[in-house]
Amino acid sequence: MSKQNLVYYLTFEDIQNRNILYNSIYMNEKTNYYISEDFSENFYIYLAYYGFICTSTSLQNKFYLLAEMQFEYAILDFKDLHISKKIAQLIKKDEFTFSINTKFEEVINKLEEYHKTNWVEDKYKNLLLSLKDYKTSNIDFKIISVELSDKNTNELIAGEIGYKIGSTYTSLTGFSSKEKKYNKYLLKINVIISSKAS
């Protein structure tokens, strides 16, 4: 690993080296951002498997994969999930359709529409699209879009992109239509649906 602009430059070989992974990355309590020019599916999947959450960034007019080894993680155990009365009533109204991986590209396009400045662009966007059908024999990885659509119009009104490794789901980013009256509940409902993403 070579130090570059207050973050470390990371390669596929670095994360496959147990000494670097455990002693230089996992044990490092001061630096948790790493950049790479490797936008390959295998590298991304292995980064996720080893605990990195990846976004993207531009530094000095160059586009990088930005891998973060977060110092703290939040875990939601779905068996202990409490669904509020308001959410339960909203679900009972049966005004929405929930789906998984049926509007994958539309979710990605809506992310760009709702978040004018975001990290799902260029090579990262292409990487997500290529991961949708990508299979690896070593790791149980699946990229997932969770979609919430208006039942009458089929309009996509909220969505999320994430991935699962084994039985663990990691949320990357999402959007919620600002025009809909139930806006504040939409992503909460997505969390419930994400728990079923398998």
UniProtKB/TrEMBL annotation:
Protein name: Leucyl, phenylalanyl-tRNA-protein transferase
Alphabetical GO biological process terms: protein catabolic process
Pfam families: Leu_Phe_trans
Coiled coil: none
GO cellular component terms, semicolon-separated: cytoplasm
Protein origin, superkingdom: Bacteria
Molecular function terms from GO: leucyl-tRNA--protein transferase activity
Gene3D superfamilies attached to this UniProt entry: Leucyl/phenylalanyl-tRNA-protein transferase, C-terminal domain (3.40.630.70)
Keywords noted in UniProt: Acyltransferase, Cytoplasm, Transferase
